[in-house]
Please model this.
Amino acid sequence: MFGILDAITNWIKDILIGAIEGNLISMFGDVNQRVGEIAAQVGQTPQGWNINIFNMIRTLSETVIMPIAGIIITYVLCYELISMVMEKNAFHDNVDTFMFFKYFFKAWAAIFIVAHTFDITMAVFDLAQHVVSGAAGVIGGNTAIDIDAAIAAMNLGAYGIPELLLLLLETFLVSFCLKIMGVVITVILYGRMIEIYLTCSVAPIPLATMTNKEWGQMGNNYLKGLLALGFQGFFLILCVGIYAVLVNDMIIAANVHTAIFSVAAYTVLLVFAMMKSGSLAKSVFNAH
Model:
């Protein structure tokens, strides 16, 4: 009689353990996959992420925004010429020819910068991509979760049926929450790339003001914003690296329940940190 009850008990436990292990594999697999996806996404340049969107943005910039930038250059240069003559010469002193040499050099520099707008903006993201790729290589090689070892460390066979039922419910809820957080993370990553495309689309206008002393602050702030967007990827990689290390530390905890909910808590923390990465990058580069 007791042998039959033991067999039924073991059968139920095997079913529960199998379901729990399935949830754990899905949960920890999502962690590893998320680390890899974030590294791949933030390491992309605008032209590498989606060449069709990039070509559309570049065409719109060159055909719609570039003429406006030309008007701004004309206005800025005319304003600077009038101001230079009135302030320097005051219509009384002899004209300094070197003053006009500097003026023509600044005019050439302004036209050159606008004509090579996308070369300049892409150079910023190429630099950021080099930094992000280096960081991703270090983080990706040291933070992957060994799923089999993690499950073995939990020693699920030592638990009774009531505790296994509770673990099944917990792992299902946490795994479901991780999938929701994964969607939020995807929105953050895609939102960053869309922001990059939108910022690059109007690049000729702020860059048209770069050579003017009074208007140049617009171009300087724009370049700071580009650097912030580029190096935001580094902060995103750093966030996911810290997250993976914390998860690795917690999955081998003595209390399995604590470990499982710690994974959920750290995932929420990861999403929060990723949402703050943009403002942190702008703060570092003093971008407004």
Summary: The chain has a mean pLDDT of 78. The chain is about 85% helix and 0% strand.
